[in-house]
Amino acid sequence: MNIRSVRVFARETSFEQLLEMQEKLNAVIEERREEAEREAAERAERERKREELLQLIAGEGFSPEELLGLSEDAQKTRKKTLPKAPPKYQFDENGETKYWSGRGRTPKPIDEALKAGRSLDEFLIKRCFQHCW
């Protein structure tokens, strides 16, 4: 709210109402101030306790990582990647046969064909498990 809007509002409101509003606003502001001070004190107390605990842990010869079971080896391990999915679809791109597993983003030639009304089944790789002739 800008000062001009406040002045317009004040001109249209009686002086008694403005004083009443001021008292109520002052009370609300004081409540918010007390709440902010209380929250700041709680944060400071929590930080003080955290520092105390870290000093106690260090005094006993432990690191926070050791207490959490995070050894150096565990920190160095990487997430295992999934094996590459076998191709499920094949398509032609500039005269070259390409393959797609069906995972991830749809290749542009397949996407364009689907938008043109073709079926995804048309691109399935035909697998022959018995004698095919």
TrEMBL record:
Localization per Swiss-Prot or TrEMBL: Cytoplasm, Nucleoid
Coiled-coil intervals, chain numbering: 15-56
Q: Which Pfam families match?
A: Histone_HNS (PF00816), Histone_HNS_N (PF22470)
MF-aspect GO terms: bent DNA binding; DNA-binding transcription repressor activity; minor groove of adenine-thymine-rich DNA binding; protein dimerization activity; structural constituent of chromatin; transcription cis-regulatory region binding
Q: Provide GO CC annotations from the record.
A: cytosol; nucleoid; protein-DNA complex
**DNA-binding protein H-NS-like C-terminal domain segment(s):** 79-125
Recorded hits in Gene3D superfamilies, A to Z, give: H-NS histone-like proteins, Histone-like protein H-NS, C-terminal domain
Region annotation Disordered: where it falls in the sequence: 74-106
Taxonomically, the superkingdom here is Bacteria
Q: Provide the alphabetized UniProt keywords.
A: Coiled coil, Cytoplasm, DNA-binding, Plasmid
Q: Which family does it belong to?
A: Belongs to the histone-like protein H-NS family.
Query: What is the protein name given in its UniProt record?
Result: DNA-binding protein
Q: Which organism is it from?
A: Escherichia coli
